Amino acid sequence: MNDRPMANIRDLAVQIADRFARSEIEMFCRNVSAGTGRPVFDLSCPLIDSGAPECESPAAIAEAVRYIELRSDALPYRMHHVDDLVWFEERV
């Protein structure tokens, strides 16, 4: 059996998850960056009017944060996490 198609699917799944985790935070957590010069997101304050209740749960947001923490060295950005606040910095 050829394992290459499964490897391609796994690679694609990881690429999608890498993008989705950050997007989950950026889309469903309140941006509290006033005056900081960069977007800062409050993990404790999900947006309740986003139209996608399954993505607004604290558990889903916590899962996205955990994924980013586990994949941190492989991602093209860094996530800074202080208390309930996170922000992202692109790697150069």
Description:
With 92 residues, this protein is of the alpha+beta class. The protein has one domain. 41% of the residues lie in helices and 23% in strands. A four-stranded antiparallel β-sheet has the order 1-2-4-3. Helix 1 crosses helix 2. The protein is globular. 12% of the residues are buried. The mean pLDDT is 86.
Task: List the SSEs and their pairings.
Layout (H helix, E strand, L loop, with lengths): L3 H25 E3 L9 E6 L11 H13 L6 E6 L2 E6 L2
Antiparallel strand pairs: 1-2, 2-4, 3-4
Beta-strand content estimate = 15-25%
Number of continuous helical runs: 2
Helix content: 40-55%
* First-to-last CA distance: 40 Å
- The gross shape turns out to be globular
